[in-house]
Design goal:
mainly alpha, two-stranded antiparallel sheet
């Protein structure tokens, strides 16, 4: 993309604002997953102590929270990229609608994830008086979250050509 100063930047500025948070949340998610493996995640249950289980579940809870952000920012960055290539105003409106829906779904999923168990510590410990909601709500959210991905027009990336290529073919 032309940045207005006479030089060419291969990545549009709005796109960078979504790639960086994606990379940060993905790095945190991978680090938490690696920590869970260090505490014994992936080993047979008889080899892990109850203290290890607690640490594993704490790490995996963090993986869930940060992984959702990473996935959302990946999808939004693709939509932002497609905004530059949208063939019509209707496409741009649809892409903006999908971007907004991605963030609404992310916030809703995070909210339900954070308040699924009261207190949050109930995810990895048995807390007197602690209570968790039925997992049906999370299953529904997973279907909605993945359904939004199916609505995303990522297949358009394969059909895009730049103006310079089409100009060359027209000559």
């Amino acid at each position: 993309m032309h940045n207005g100063r006479g030089s060419y930047s291969p990545i549009p500025a709005p796109l960078i604002s979504f790639i960086l948070p994606n990379q940060v949340s993905e790095t945190i998610s991978y680090a938490l997953f690696a920590a869970a493996v260090r505490f014994g995640f992936g080993k047979h249950g008889i080899y892990a102590s109850s203290a290890s289980y607690r640490k594993i579940f704490q790490c995996l809870f963090g993986v869930i929270l940060t992984g959702l952000w990473s996935s959302t920012f990946s999808r939004v960055s693709i939509a932002v990229l497609l905004l530059d290539f949208a063939p019509s105003r209707a496409w741009k409106i649809a892409l903006w609608l999908l971007i907004v829906l991605q963030f609404i779904d992310l916030l809703g999923t995070e909210f339900i994830e954070l308040f699924q168990c009261r207190p949050i510590r109930e995810f990895w410990d048995q807390v007197p008086g602690g209570k968790c909601n039925a997992p049906d709500m999370m299953q529904i959210l997973i279907y909605v979250y993945n359904g939004l991905y199916l609505l995303h027009p990522h297949y358009r990336l394969f059909n895009l050509t730049s103006e310079t290529e089409s100009d060359r073919h027209a000559r």
